[in-house]
């Protein structure tokens, strides 16, 4: 499949749920991408083909809680590299480092095991969607605290209107790779 047809094919399988979880929000639901085995394979292959290239190959894939676990672990498996979860605070049993970030209302904290990555590791950081960019930025900072280099942030969906991708690329100096963007409605 040509890359633009892959983007269109995946976009067709993302469900938009209006007014969820709050009035005025257009929720982009990726679960239909995972339910159909052919669509799921096209999705994973779009990432794997990019990161299989020697110059782009990570040492480890880090996935953000929780949908980043679904695609990140499969991509890591296909690339033959390890997978590490970046979890919401209080979920990891071993020694952790943590990073707190601001949400629209309040804040959230994510954690990573201290032995999840080694200094110098090239890490691919994955989530399902980039909205405000806060979670991915916190994940990048966590990985860097342990001496790793985040080579790229990747997601299925970018919501450019929410400013996250711009923030990550400018303030965070993080290259991004996304498959589908939803500008407007």
TrEMBL record:
Gene Ontology molecular function: any one: adenine binding
Catalytic reaction equation(s): AMP + diphosphate = 5-phospho-alpha-D-ribose 1-diphosphate + adenine
Span of domain Phosphoribosyltransferase: 33-160
Subcellular location per the Swiss-Prot or TrEMBL entry: Cytoplasm
Top-level taxon in the UniProt lineage: Bacteria
Transmembrane spans: none
Cellular component GO terms held in the UniProt record: cytoplasm
EC number(s) from the headed UniProt entry: 2.4.2.7
Keyword set, alphabetical order: Cytoplasm, Glycosyltransferase, Purine salvage, Transferase
Coiled-coil spans in chain: none
Pathway field: Purine metabolism; AMP biosynthesis via salvage pathway; AMP from adenine: step 1/1
Cross-referenced InterPro entries: Ade_phspho_trans, PRTase-like, PRTase_dom, UPRTase/APRTase
GO BP: any one term: adenine salvage
Family the entry assigns: Belongs to the purine/pyrimidine phosphoribosyltransferase family.
HAMAP family given in the database record: Aden_phosphoribosyltr (MF_00004)
PANTHER family per record: ADENINE PHOSPHORIBOSYLTRANSFERASE (PTHR32315)
Family annotation (NCBIfam families): apt, PRK02304.1-3, PRK02304.1-5
Subunit structure as annotated in this protein's UniProt entry: Homodimer.
Cited function: Catalyzes a salvage reaction resulting in the formation of AMP, that is energically less costly than de novo synthesis.
Identification of the protein by name: Adenine phosphoribosyltransferase
Originating organism: Comamonas denitrificans
